[in-house]
Amino acid sequence: MSGGAGRLASAANLLGRGRTADVYDLGDGLVLRRYRDGYDAEREAEIQAHVAEHGFPAPAVVEAHGPDLVMARVAGPTMLGALVAGDARPDEAAHLLADLHDRLHALPAPAGPREPGDVVVHLDLHPDNVMLDPERGPVLIDWANARLGTADLDVAMTALILAEVAVAPPDSELAAQAGPALAAVPALGAAFLAAVDGDARLGLAGALAMRAANPTLDAAEKERLSTAVRAVREWADAAG
Hints:
Layout (H helix, E strand, L loop, with lengths): L4 H4 L5 E4 L3 E7 L2 E6 L6 H12 L7 E5 L2 E5 L6 H7 L4 H16 L13 E3 L8 E4 L3 E4 L6 E3 L1 H16 L6 H6 L6 H11 L4 H13 L6 H5 L1 H15 L1
Antiparallel strand pairs: 1-2, 2-3, 3-5, 4-5, 6-9, 7-8
Helix pairs in contact: 4-7, 5-7, 5-8, 5-10, 7-10, 8-10
Protein backbone atom coordinates (compact mmCIF):
# COMPACT_ATOMS: atom_id res chain seq x y z
CA MET A 1 0.00 0.00 0.00
CA SER A 2 1.12 3.59 -0.38
CA GLY A 3 2.86 5.47 2.42
CA GLY A 4 4.43 3.76 5.41
CA ALA A 5 1.37 1.98 6.80
CA GLY A 6 2.65 -1.45 5.87
CA ARG A 7 5.99 -0.85 7.55
CA LEU A 8 4.42 0.65 10.68
CA ALA A 9 2.14 -2.32 11.33
CA SER A 10 3.87 -4.38 14.00
CA ALA A 11 3.20 -6.07 17.31
CA ALA A 12 4.36 -2.90 19.05
CA ASN A 13 1.36 -0.90 17.84
CA LEU A 14 -1.25 -3.67 17.65
CA LEU A 15 -4.54 -2.37 19.08
CA GLY A 16 -6.62 -5.51 18.79
CA ARG A 17 -7.28 -8.79 17.02
CA GLY A 18 -10.68 -9.77 15.69
CA ARG A 19 -11.74 -13.08 14.19
CA THR A 20 -10.47 -12.10 10.74
CA ALA A 21 -8.36 -8.94 11.02
CA ASP A 22 -5.83 -7.08 13.14
CA VAL A 23 -5.98 -3.36 13.90
CA TYR A 24 -2.83 -1.26 14.32
CA ASP A 25 -2.25 2.28 15.52
CA LEU A 26 -0.43 4.27 12.83
CA GLY A 27 -0.25 7.49 14.82
CA ASP A 28 -1.56 10.87 13.67
CA GLY A 29 -5.12 9.76 14.42
CA LEU A 30 -5.05 6.84 11.96
CA VAL A 31 -5.43 3.08 12.26
CA LEU A 32 -4.73 0.21 9.89
CA ARG A 33 -7.15 -2.71 9.65
CA ARG A 34 -5.34 -5.67 8.03
CA TYR A 35 -7.01 -8.93 7.07
CA ARG A 36 -4.94 -11.95 8.00
CA ASP A 37 -6.24 -14.10 5.12
CA GLY A 38 -5.52 -11.54 2.41
CA TYR A 39 -9.19 -10.54 1.98
CA ASP A 40 -9.55 -7.53 -0.32
CA ALA A 41 -10.70 -4.54 1.77
CA GLU A 42 -11.46 -2.23 -1.15
CA ARG A 43 -15.19 -3.04 -1.39
CA GLU A 44 -15.51 -2.54 2.36
CA ALA A 45 -13.76 0.81 2.03
CA GLU A 46 -16.09 1.91 -0.77
CA ILE A 47 -19.29 1.32 1.17
CA GLN A 48 -17.82 2.71 4.41
CA ALA A 49 -16.76 5.86 2.57
CA HIS A 50 -20.20 6.09 0.95
CA VAL A 51 -22.11 6.10 4.23
CA ALA A 52 -19.63 8.50 5.86
CA GLU A 53 -19.99 10.92 2.96
CA HIS A 54 -23.75 10.92 3.56
CA GLY A 55 -23.38 11.86 7.21
CA PHE A 56 -23.56 8.45 8.83
CA PRO A 57 -21.21 7.95 11.82
CA ALA A 58 -18.53 5.66 10.39
CA PRO A 59 -14.73 6.07 10.47
CA ALA A 60 -13.41 8.23 7.62
CA VAL A 61 -11.56 6.15 5.03
CA VAL A 62 -8.07 7.31 4.04
CA GLU A 63 -7.05 4.56 1.63
CA ALA A 64 -7.46 0.86 0.91
CA HIS A 65 -5.31 -1.58 -1.00
CA GLY A 66 -5.55 -5.36 -0.92
CA PRO A 67 -6.00 -6.54 2.68
CA ASP A 68 -5.13 -3.12 4.16
CA LEU A 69 -7.62 -0.41 5.10
CA VAL A 70 -6.38 2.86 6.61
CA MET A 71 -8.97 5.02 8.35
CA ALA A 72 -9.47 7.59 11.08
CA ARG A 73 -9.14 6.31 14.62
CA VAL A 74 -12.28 6.49 16.75
CA ALA A 75 -11.99 7.36 20.44
CA GLY A 76 -13.94 5.91 23.33
CA PRO A 77 -15.01 2.48 24.55
CA THR A 78 -17.19 0.06 22.65
CA MET A 79 -20.85 -0.14 23.60
CA LEU A 80 -20.12 -3.64 24.91
CA GLY A 81 -17.34 -2.28 27.09
CA ALA A 82 -19.65 0.41 28.46
CA LEU A 83 -22.34 -2.19 29.23
CA VAL A 84 -19.85 -4.45 31.00
CA ALA A 85 -18.50 -1.51 33.02
CA GLY A 86 -21.99 -0.37 33.97
CA ASP A 87 -21.55 2.93 32.13
CA ALA A 88 -24.46 2.26 29.75
CA ARG A 89 -27.92 0.86 30.46
CA PRO A 90 -29.36 -1.95 28.31
CA ASP A 91 -32.37 0.15 27.33
CA GLU A 92 -30.08 2.99 26.22
CA ALA A 93 -27.97 0.56 24.20
CA ALA A 94 -31.08 -0.93 22.58
CA HIS A 95 -32.29 2.46 21.41
CA LEU A 96 -28.83 3.42 20.12
CA LEU A 97 -28.67 0.20 18.09
CA ALA A 98 -32.15 0.84 16.71
CA ASP A 99 -31.27 4.43 15.81
CA LEU A 100 -28.13 3.34 13.95
CA HIS A 101 -30.17 0.83 11.95
CA ASP A 102 -32.86 3.35 11.09
CA ARG A 103 -30.36 6.02 10.06
CA LEU A 104 -28.33 3.59 7.96
CA HIS A 105 -31.34 2.20 6.14
CA ALA A 106 -32.54 5.72 5.29
CA LEU A 107 -29.35 6.55 3.36
CA PRO A 108 -29.31 6.60 -0.43
CA ALA A 109 -27.89 3.39 -1.87
CA PRO A 110 -24.66 3.49 -3.89
CA ALA A 111 -25.03 3.64 -7.65
CA GLY A 112 -25.48 0.31 -9.37
CA PRO A 113 -27.97 -2.53 -9.72
CA ARG A 114 -30.16 -3.41 -6.78
CA GLU A 115 -33.34 -5.27 -5.95
CA PRO A 116 -36.58 -3.48 -4.95
CA GLY A 117 -36.45 -2.64 -1.26
CA ASP A 118 -32.68 -2.85 -1.03
CA VAL A 119 -30.90 -0.44 1.31
CA VAL A 120 -27.38 -0.28 2.72
CA VAL A 121 -27.06 -2.96 5.39
CA HIS A 122 -24.19 -3.55 7.81
CA LEU A 123 -24.91 -7.18 8.78
CA ASP A 124 -22.67 -7.07 11.86
CA LEU A 125 -24.22 -4.28 13.90
CA HIS A 126 -23.86 -5.27 17.55
CA PRO A 127 -22.50 -3.66 20.76
CA ASP A 128 -18.87 -4.65 20.15
CA ASN A 129 -18.91 -2.87 16.78
CA VAL A 130 -20.26 0.42 18.13
CA MET A 131 -17.70 2.86 19.51
CA LEU A 132 -18.97 5.50 21.93
CA ASP A 133 -16.87 8.48 20.90
CA PRO A 134 -17.04 11.25 23.54
CA GLU A 135 -17.38 13.93 20.85
CA ARG A 136 -19.18 12.20 17.97
CA GLY A 137 -21.40 9.83 19.90
CA PRO A 138 -21.97 6.28 18.59
CA VAL A 139 -19.76 5.35 15.62
CA LEU A 140 -20.30 2.10 13.73
CA ILE A 141 -17.14 0.18 12.80
CA ASP A 142 -16.24 -3.07 10.98
CA TRP A 143 -17.97 -2.76 7.59
CA ALA A 144 -16.60 -6.01 6.15
CA ASN A 145 -20.06 -7.57 5.71
CA ALA A 146 -21.82 -4.42 4.47
CA ARG A 147 -23.70 -4.57 1.19
CA LEU A 148 -27.16 -3.93 -0.25
CA GLY A 149 -30.02 -5.91 1.26
CA THR A 150 -33.26 -5.50 3.16
CA ALA A 151 -33.63 -3.66 6.43
CA ASP A 152 -35.42 -6.72 7.84
CA LEU A 153 -32.34 -8.87 7.17
CA ASP A 154 -30.06 -6.36 8.89
CA VAL A 155 -32.35 -6.11 11.93
CA ALA A 156 -32.62 -9.89 12.12
CA MET A 157 -28.84 -10.25 11.99
CA THR A 158 -28.37 -7.92 14.95
CA ALA A 159 -31.07 -9.72 16.92
CA LEU A 160 -29.59 -13.12 16.10
CA ILE A 161 -26.09 -12.09 17.17
CA LEU A 162 -27.50 -10.77 20.45
CA ALA A 163 -29.43 -14.01 20.92
CA GLU A 164 -26.29 -16.07 20.33
CA VAL A 165 -24.78 -14.31 23.33
CA ALA A 166 -27.95 -14.76 25.39
CA VAL A 167 -28.01 -18.54 24.87
CA ALA A 168 -24.26 -19.09 25.22
CA PRO A 169 -23.13 -21.38 28.07
CA PRO A 170 -21.69 -19.57 31.11
CA ASP A 171 -18.22 -21.01 30.43
CA SER A 172 -18.14 -19.93 26.76
CA GLU A 173 -16.02 -17.17 25.26
CA LEU A 174 -19.14 -15.20 24.33
CA ALA A 175 -20.41 -15.27 27.91
CA ALA A 176 -16.99 -14.24 29.20
CA GLN A 177 -16.92 -11.25 26.85
CA ALA A 178 -20.36 -10.13 28.02
CA GLY A 179 -19.38 -10.52 31.67
CA PRO A 180 -21.84 -8.95 34.09
CA ALA A 181 -23.91 -7.64 31.16
CA LEU A 182 -24.85 -11.18 30.09
CA ALA A 183 -28.03 -11.31 32.16
CA ALA A 184 -29.31 -8.13 30.51
CA VAL A 185 -28.91 -9.33 26.90
CA PRO A 186 -32.46 -10.75 26.54
CA ALA A 187 -33.97 -7.46 27.74
CA LEU A 188 -31.65 -5.54 25.42
CA GLY A 189 -32.66 -7.71 22.46
CA ALA A 190 -36.37 -7.35 23.15
CA ALA A 191 -36.05 -3.58 23.62
CA PHE A 192 -34.07 -3.29 20.38
CA LEU A 193 -36.76 -5.09 18.38
CA ALA A 194 -39.46 -2.95 19.97
CA ALA A 195 -37.64 0.27 19.02
CA VAL A 196 -36.29 -0.45 15.52
CA ASP A 197 -38.08 -0.10 12.20
CA GLY A 198 -38.16 -3.40 10.36
CA ASP A 199 -39.35 -6.87 11.28
CA ALA A 200 -36.68 -9.36 12.34
CA ARG A 201 -39.06 -12.25 11.68
CA LEU A 202 -39.07 -11.43 7.96
CA GLY A 203 -35.28 -11.48 7.74
CA LEU A 204 -34.55 -14.27 10.19
CA ALA A 205 -34.24 -17.11 7.66
CA GLY A 206 -31.66 -15.17 5.68
CA ALA A 207 -29.75 -14.17 8.79
CA LEU A 208 -29.69 -17.78 10.00
CA ALA A 209 -28.36 -19.01 6.66
CA MET A 210 -25.58 -16.43 6.72
CA ARG A 211 -24.58 -17.22 10.30
CA ALA A 212 -24.64 -20.96 9.63
CA ALA A 213 -22.28 -20.44 6.69
CA ASN A 214 -19.96 -18.11 8.62
CA PRO A 215 -16.53 -19.78 8.80
CA THR A 216 -15.56 -17.85 11.94
CA LEU A 217 -18.22 -19.66 14.02
CA ASP A 218 -17.13 -22.93 15.55
CA ALA A 219 -19.25 -26.10 15.58
CA ALA A 220 -20.67 -25.46 19.05
CA GLU A 221 -21.70 -21.92 18.12
CA LYS A 222 -23.45 -23.19 14.99
CA GLU A 223 -25.26 -25.87 16.99
CA ARG A 224 -26.73 -23.16 19.24
CA LEU A 225 -28.12 -21.14 16.32
CA SER A 226 -31.51 -22.88 16.40
CA THR A 227 -31.87 -21.97 20.07
CA ALA A 228 -30.87 -18.39 19.28
CA VAL A 229 -33.50 -18.24 16.52
CA ARG A 230 -36.20 -19.26 19.00
CA ALA A 231 -35.06 -16.48 21.32
CA VAL A 232 -35.30 -13.91 18.52
CA ARG A 233 -38.82 -15.05 17.68
CA GLU A 234 -39.83 -14.72 21.32
CA TRP A 235 -38.38 -11.20 21.51
CA ALA A 236 -40.06 -10.20 18.25
CA ASP A 237 -43.43 -11.57 19.33
CA ALA A 238 -43.15 -9.67 22.61
CA ALA A 239 -42.29 -6.49 20.70
CA GLY A 240 -45.48 -6.86 18.63
